[in-house]
Design a protein that fits this description.
354 residues, alpha/beta, globular, 6-stranded parallel β-sheet, single chain
């Protein structure tokens, strides 16, 4: 089968690109002929600038004989930012509409869309028509419902397991991972990980951890992807918070997949205190690697969480969870790692660049 994939791609620091690479690797192992269209900073087979629709015009050109064309969609991947980019946004939406019309084998994997988009924007009006006519894939039904509500459309869609885009397997025990990171194997470790911006809500975890009495260690691993004043100020606030809270630390850097997985395996719990979220690539990765998760009960996280994960609705509940899974007579919790789920078929889904 010949497949064209349109996405950001490593080495760009983007969760969607990491997901797309895992999907492409799996498809190629299965014997498929895959062509990747990526931005110039990705290692795609065809590299073109994203932001004015050229990626979709290229997919029209090379996708005529393709059996499938997979577009990994998130606004920040395909659209230029800011009000001054209004014309380019329209061109991008028109190019995507043309791709869907001319190549009916297109599948759009919706990782995230603009929440509650203003109806007067022409680029979003065009995009709404694309969503109404194309074949879409979502990780959770909550994401589908949110898109239909926000864009005022009904869609043709299917659900795909987010874990299908995680190219990881557990090869170390928790103690081994702790030793490689230089951590105390007897100290409970809570982990927050991902790009630093206010919607991640990491400051909630710091406050709740402090209120719970600092029961162990809270590590935040992440970096600022978009250096906007808001995001830079948020990172500064996190640094200030962790410096004054016992047991809390912030490592501001982008880590590769191997190191990211090492931290997840080392943690007793991955904490996702998000204020806004569709689905989470970090949550999917934790489930594959067998680390339980504490997550805010919002968006698609409710459906995405597994039976060993905990959901919270308030900061007070988060405090309680820190206390429950923190120090118990000086020893960390002893939940055994879960067996990883079977691999998905690799057709769609993904974490976002968030």
């Amino acid at each position: 089968m010949r497949i064209v994939v349109v996405s950001s791609y490593p080495p760009r620091h983007c969760g969607i690109g990491i997901y797309a690479r895992a999907q492409v690797d799996r498809l190629r192992v299965d014997g498929h002929d895959v062509v990747v269209i990526s931005p110039p900073d990705g290692d795609g087979d065809i590299r073109v600038p994203f932001g004015r629709g050229r990626q979709f015009r290229e997919a029209v050109r090379v996708g005529g004989e393709a059996d499938r064309i997979v577009v990994h969609f998130q606004p920040g991947v395909h659209y230029l930012p800011g009000a001054r980019a209004a014309v380019s946004k329209i061109r991008t939406s028109l190019a995507l509409r043309s791709l869907v019309r001319r190549r009916p084998q297109v599948e759009i994997v919706v990782h995230e869309s603009t929440p509650r988009p203003p109806r007067w924007r022409l680029d979003l009006m065009i995009l709404a028509r694309v969503f109404a006519t194309a074949q879409l894939s979502f990780h959770t039904d909550a994401e589908r419902r949110a898109l239909e509500r926000d864009y005022g459309v009904r869609v043709h869609s299917r659900l795909v397991d987010h874990r299908g885009g995680v190219g990881a397997s557990r090869t170390l025990t928790r103690d081994d991972a702790r030793r490689r990171l230089g951590g105390n194997p007897r100290e409970p470790l809570f982990l927050c990980a991902g790009f630093l911006h206010p919607s991640k809500g990491f400051e909630r975890a710091i406050r709740a951890f402090e209120t719970a009495g600092s029961p162990g260690r809270l590590a935040i691993i992440g970096s600022v992807r978009d250096p906007t004043p808001e995001n830079l100020a948020y990172a500064d606030r996190l640094h200030a918070q962790t410096e004054r809270v016992a047991g809390a630390s912030l490592v501001e850097e982008f880590v590769d997949d191997e190191t990211f997985d090492l931290w997840i395996v080392a943690a007793d719990r991955l904490v996702l205190p998000y204020r806004r979220a569709w689905s989470s690539g970090a949550l999917a990765r934790a489930r594959v690697l067998g680390t339980p998760v504490i997550a805010a009960a919002i968006g698609g996280l409710i459906e995405q969480a597994g039976e060993d994960d905990e959901l919270f609705e308030s900061d007070a509940e988060l405090v309680t969870l820190f206390r429950r899974f923190g120090s118990v007579d000086g020893h960390p919790p002893s939940a055994p790692p879960r067996d990883p789920p079977p691999a998905a078929d690799g057709r769609g889904s993904a974490p976002g660049c968030s």
